[in-house]
Amino acid sequence: MKTDDALHKELLSAWEETYKKGQLTLWIFLSLKEGPKYVSGLQESIERFSKGTIHAEEQSLYRTLRKYYHLKMVDFSAGKGHKGPDRKYYHLTPLGESLLQSFVERNIQLFFEEPLKELLLNDSITAKKITP
To answer: pLDDT tens digits for 119-129?
Structure first.
């Protein structure tokens, strides 16, 4: 039988894994909102923004960017690589910028408004936290 701490860690890990897969678009778009980036630059931004909790695989990013390019949400331009061939520097298109803004308004801003803000900042929630 698992201890409460072990069960907590296991369930939190599974929930975070599901969350991460569902939020890759948000992290990519936020990174590109900061400015054009090549794939490894995107990986670095995503890790920095998420404080190391999100690690996007290179192939996942390429696949996702290719899909978003075909949907006209991102575009790219060729730029010089440091030592090798030219790189693709990805950026949001006006459609991508508009989608990000709409997503944030509908799904993110509500966390900064009552009653969710109060629930998330309520000390009774943090007092019940199990130490990982």
So the answer is: 888 866 554 55
